Amino acid sequence: MSNMVTEILAFILTTSGWVLISSTIPTDYWKVSSLDGTVITTATFWSNLWKTCVTDSTGVSNCKDFPSMLALDGYIQACRGLMITAVCLGFFGAVFALVGMKCTKIGGSDQSKARTACIAGVNFILSGLCSLSACSLYAHRITSEFFNPMFVAQKYELGVALFIGWAGSIFCILGGVILCFSIADSSTTSHTGYAYRGATSASNVSSHPRGHAQPMSHSSSSRVQHFDKNAYV
Q1: Do the Cβ atoms of 134 and 172 come closer than 8 Å?
Q2: What pLDDT sits at residue 184?
Q3: Among 139, 176, 151, which residue's Cα sits nearest to residue 29?
Q4: Contact (Cβ atoms closer than 8 angstroms) between residue 14 and residue 93
Q5: What is the CA radius of gyration of the chain?
Q6: Largest CB tally within 10 Å, which of 18, 34, 55, 214?
Q7: What is the pLDDT of residues 70-81, one digit of tens each?
Q8: Predicted TM-score (pTM) of this structure
Q9: What's the rounded Cα separation, in Å, for the pair 225 and 110?
Q10: Contacts of 41 (CB under 8 A, 6+ apart)
């Protein structure tokens, strides 16, 4: 029962992390910068993996999509690939988790369900690592440009999308690890119980070696004695 509760908790964590990672891709504010006037913010510059925009004080946004993928910076291409890979791995991990969890009625025997759940945990861990790498790479580029005194172009700060991606990555990694350890604990417990029963049966067999008759119980011997008495009568 405890293993089932642990699996459900791990599934909730991993699914929540996968949803956060999926919502990070279309989120606008991966990096943000603003120009402040004397009273109000005159303009806000922000960018994500697909476009760069500027929003004025009236709330009107003017956006420009990035050019061809071959003309993009290398770190944006890498972040796109890592985030898409993270979403795909999380989707397959959710499917495998539904099949391999003990609370579901599909997936075959307990051994096959345990293997499937372990594969789901590995997929979620890889998904979290991919998303974590993408967000960290993007943040490293922002901070390196911000603290570079020779960089004279527009400097940006970390946007809210990066923090959402980091949170989703942590949820996926933690849930995947919990899922793998819950399966390992359940398989270890079942294997130990089987070995103990096997050892007990083997000791019973070895206590009566082949070729030697087992001693008869008191009830059977008394029956034999009673039969002998009647025979002589």
Answers
A1: no
A2: 64
A3: 139
A4: yes
A5: 33
A6: 18
A7: 888 889 999 999
A8: 0.74
A9: 53
A10: 34, 35, 57
> Tens of pLDDT along 196-228?
344 444 444 444 444 444 444 444 444 444 444
Mean pLDDT of 76-98: 94
pLDDT: which is higher, 36 or 230: 36
Top pLDDT among 233 and 76 is at 76
Quote the CA–CA distance of 117 and 7 in Å, as a whole number.
Answer: 9
